[in-house]
Amino acid sequence: MGGTEAGYVKEAFDTNWIAPLGPNVNGFEQDIELFLDNGCHAAALSSGTAALHLGLVLLGVKPGDEVICQSMTFSATANPITYVGATPIFVDSESDTWNISPALMAEAIEDRIAKGKKPKAIIPVHLYGMPAKMDEIVAVARRYEIPVLEDAAEALGSSINGQRCGGLGDIGVLSFNGNKIITTSGGGALVSRDAGIVKDARFLATQARDEAPHYQHSQIGYNYRMSNICAGIGRGQMEVLAERIGQRRNIYNQYLNYFEGKKGISLLAEPAGYFSNRWLTTILVDPAEAGITREDLRLALDADQVESRPLWKPMHMQPVFAGFPFYGDGTAERLFQNGLCLPSGSNLTDDDMNRIFAVMDKTLK
Ligand SMILES: *Cc1c(COP(=O)(O)O)cnc(C)c1O
Predict the structure, then answer these.
(1) What is the percent of the chain with per-residue pLDDT over 90, rounded to a whole number?
(2) I need a surface site. Which of 75, 91, 148, 160 has the fewest CB within 10 A?
(3) Tens of pLDDT along 293-319?
(4) Beta carbon of 70 within 6 Å of any ligand 1 atom
(5) pLDDT for 15-38, tens place per residue?
(6) Beta carbon of 48 within 6 Å of any ligand 1 atom
């Protein structure tokens, strides 16, 4: 926490605004809109997953439809496709950003059209804070007139040429889950430059109540609004977002310095014009060069009580998504095989970092 969160939460208690609406919800939405800029509107919701689900509903995705989805991601990106009864079409990553490959995505769209169905939406993800190649992705999407649902759950504060992630697609999704760069304990937001979409999101998120003195409904609604208490935490967190990004980038730079000259370990550099919030620092271990595998390094860290984790296991390799179409060239599988997420918390101290380096010294040449 940054320090001012409890004040906003106390205000909610003092004024008895203990509901999924109230001044903190409105204030948090304004904070998000100001931060993303670019004419973005925001609806604060109960989670990023809820925002992805509503995004698909608002784009008109129906049972039997197909949705293009980045394979290398957290399952929360893909699950909502099945909530609306649609089929995920998984696409591999490219190696510059580890996100959806625009070329393979175009190939997948062509093939799905040839097989009789044009995909109804495209979901790129900015993994670990690194922006996906949105210019190319949006260009392909426009060519086929398919809307882009941008999963920016890990990338609040990341940008391409100064344009902030979340506002780069037709609809954007943010997450404020406990593990993200800032948190409301649990929460998310749906953002769009189209004010009508965000108004509809708020409507659907509050049970789709028609305007009437009684309870009347013409559509299926959801209970997806953010609580005024959680939004209070969010208002305080927005005040320290820039600081958190600075801390995460500083941790990345410390790892970068540490690995300099060590053979077979590579970090993910920012392409020109790209800015990553460096939510997590990730590395690739080339066993031939490094003399050890990713798993050797992970187990060595673990033996000294330092937790690290393999990268996201691609969706097309998950038992639950076995048998869904996949368009790829082996990139995500290679990343999963050799990639590791290192300790990256904003509160890591110099002592913590030195301890991590000392453990790695014993394993790395
Ligand atoms: C965390 C996350 C989500 C889901 O957000 P929640 O707020 O936890 O529901 C979606 N996509 C990605 C890539 C995430 O990392």
Answers:
(1) 99
(2) 75
(3) 999 999 999 999 999 999 999 999 999
(4) no
(5) 999 999 999 999 999 999 999 998
(6) yes
- pLDDT 10s digits, 93-106: 999 999 999 999 99
pTM of the complete model:
0.98
Q: Does ligand 1 lie within 6 Å of residue 183's CB atom? A: no
- The CATH code of the domain at 242-364 is 3.90.1150.10
Using the atom order of ligand 1, give the atom closest to the CA of residue 76: 10
pLDDT at 365: 66
Q: What are the start-end ranges of the H helices in 175-292? A: 195-205, 228-238, 241-259, 287-290
Instruction: State the Cα–Cα distance between residues 295 and 287, nearest whole angstrom.
Output: 10
Q: Regarding beta strands 188-192 and 282-285, do their DSSP bridges make them parallel or antiparallel, or are they unpaired?
A: unpaired
Cβ atoms 42, 33 nearer than 8 A: yes
Instruction: Retrieve residue 15's tokens.
Output: 């004024």
Residue bearing the CA closest to ligand 1, atom 11: 77
Neighbours of 128 (CB within 10 A): 24
Tokens 């290192």 sit at which residue?
342
Cβ density class 178-195: b for 16+ within 10 Å, e for less:
eebbbbbebbbbbbbbee
153 CB near ligand 1 (under 6 Å): yes
Nearest CA to ligand 1 atom 8: 177
* Measured CA distances, 97 to 66, 104, 138, 297 (Å): 25, 14, 16, 23
Q: How far is the CA of 156 from the centre of ligand 1 (A)?
A: 12
The reported pLDDT for the residue numbered 103 is: 98
Which residues of the chain fall short of a pLDDT of 70?
365
Mutating to test ligand 1, I would choose from 173, 175, 313 the residue with most ligand atoms within 8 A of its C-beta, which is 175
Q: Is the C-beta atom of 188 inside 6 A of ligand 1?
A: yes
> How far apart are the CA of 181 and the centre of ligand 1, in A?
12
Fold of 5-240: Aspartate Aminotransferase; domain 2 (3.40.640)
| pLDDT at residue 38, rounded to an integer | 87
49 Cβ below 6 A of ligand 1? yes
Q: Is the CB of 177 under 6 A from ligand 1?
A: yes
Q: Whose CA is nearest to atom 14 of ligand 1?
A: 153
- List the domain boundaries for the chain: 5-240, 242-364
